[in-house]
Amino acid sequence: MAGIYISYPFCAQKCTYCNFASDVLPRELEPQYIAALHREIRGTEWRFTPETVYFGGGTPSNMEPADLASLMKALPGALFAEATLEAAPGNITVERATAWRTAGINRVSLGVQSFITKELARTGRKHSAEIVAREIEDLRAGGIDNFNIDLIAGLPGQTAASWSESLDWVERLEAPHVSVYMLEVDEDSRLGAEVLAFGQRYGARDIPSNDTIADFYEVAVERLVRIGVPRYEISNFARPGFESRHNTKYWTRDPYLGFGSDAHSFDGTDRVQNTERAQDYIVDPNPQRTPADSTSERFFLGLRLMRGIAPPFEPFAAQVRALITNGLLEFTDRLRLTPRGVLLSNDVFAEFV
Question: Using the 8-state DSSP alphabet, how is residue 210 labeled?
Fold first, then answer.
């Protein structure tokens, strides 16, 4: 089934590790942006009734609840099987959670990243573990029991002990879904640029080694399985029945429509990307269309899922055989990444591009 993605690129602060098309933008731009979203939605030819909607960013939880409700009403379909709102801890109240639930939101993705105050301070985040715990209770009181906790393995100054403490909090809060991302050095983030320039701001010299980051990830895999939150995709873990229905569409190549700046769409044949800057999007979304390579995408997207992909494996049969021989893929009823293949997944996927 199809889905909708709505980009809301406004943030209260830009996190040091972030390489997304989001920023601290002028407040007066927000109503113009909301109006542009409505224009793009009204101008869309709907060839399907969407099953899921996902508000990403940026920090869409900072959106005025009335604006969120108006956007939800503008979309086709009265009820969504899954409607997710990304949120930054620090501004969630029972009243806001209730308003989100009334608007149709039934899932919240929390950008926690760490439960350790020192690690958070270096990213620019201002919440604490206690704030996250209190706001999860507020979500539940507002009628939203389905939530995700984002964590990053490899933040500056992170240690085995501090990583274990963050996982302790995940267990204590009984999160039904957890996303674990291994820190990537990217020149488009302030932290990444500092690392590449051999600088020391933002804790650039205190980033754990790649091997240590991989160890943190594997500890998380083992710990989350033990508490009943198994991995279903490279970076995503969920209790049975709580897997993200919207995000799974990306890996199974189901169609989705994206609205807003830098939003992406996929109709089964072509991939479309709107203009990146919010200021430009308000004037003209200027979507750029590119034909999708369905053969390659079936491998490098489908193999992200732990269930893997089914035969046939042409035209990549030779690559598949070599990757199996090298211990990066395995085949029983389906083709899957091995545990080692997960850690070297970028190398695996490069064989199919």
Answer: H
